[in-house]
């Protein structure tokens, strides 16, 4: 349920209602829009049966929430959320690009990749330190040593760092090195891990699973938000279909659907959707045209030598060309992307 306050409601009235709700053991989430304030009520609403909330000063109406994803839904927060990660705003007018290699392999590799993507306008360096792989014999990542190298690359370039965490232990270790966590597609319904991320309060990029419906995806995001972490950015990365021409089928319809259902920002991962480098740029441009708030793209100084996902990683030169095109598309759409490469 949400409590819609009158446009002229006072802060003292909002505080009084909040105190009543909290005294009954209910959680609250206050969303202040340009015209009115909405108070989201979290918990068993039956305790309100004898409390005339609708008659309290400043209250305009009570609205039940039909969706199971309350905190992630637009009914709860009608205005789009903008997630601020150390000054970089995801979901605002400016498009956000996260780029870097699939996995951190060496100091030279990650520093070179960071310098290249920074030059082309990326705001985040991505790189896997923990690599969940289909085969137990495939490269699994450098773990904390990889995190240290990401931190070194951040210090050298000023880029923010995002990396995937795969366990509660990884969350604890990575917290010291990165500005943003990533939950990969394999862990989209690892609810224990999602609760841990929720308790961390650190911004998180939350990928859709290959067989996850949008409803299931938003409900999974609810696990993070129900622990008090509202800094969630969704990421469409392709779903499993009958088609074999690409690694996954990029569901670009998810972008407008999510924006209709949720206030959370959404970006697109064309690399894991395509699985083949020749499709990454076209899918990236289509994602921006569909309304995505940004991209996360794999870029490697020498893709042919990559220890994982070699076939889908762009070269720095190809990434630079892509960023140049994105800046033009952004202008047409009334958005911004700073392409400064010389």
Describe the structure.
With 342 residues, the protein is an alpha/beta fold. It folds into two domains: 62 residues, Alpha-Beta Plaits (2-Layer Sandwich), CATH 3.30.70; 251 residues, Aldolase class I (TIM Barrel), CATH 3.20.20.70. 33% of the residues lie in helices and 18% in strands. It is built from ten helices and 14 strands. The strands form three sheets. The chain has an eight-stranded parallel sheet. α2 packs parallel to α10 and α5 crosses α6. The longest helix is centred in the last third of the chain and has 18 residues. The radius of gyration is 21 Å and the shape is elongated. The N and C termini lie far apart (53 Å).
Strand tally is: 14
Largest sheet: 8 strands, parallel
Report the top-level CATH class of the largest domain. Answer: Alpha Beta
Order of helices and strands: EHEEEEEEHEHEHEHEHEHEHHEH
Broad structural category: alpha/beta
Helix coverage percent: 25-40%
What is CATH's topology name of the largest domain?
TIM Barrel
Strand content: 15-25%
Q: What radius of gyration results from the CA coordinates?
A: 21 Å
Number of helices: 10
Shape: elongated
* Unreliable segments of 5+ consecutive residues: none
Q: How many structural domains? A: 2
Mean pLDDT: 93
Task: State the separation between the terminal residues, measured CA to CA.
Answer: 53 Å
- Spatial order of the strands in the main sheet? 13-12-11-10-9-8-7-14
- CATH homologous superfamily of the largest domain - what is it? Aldolase class I
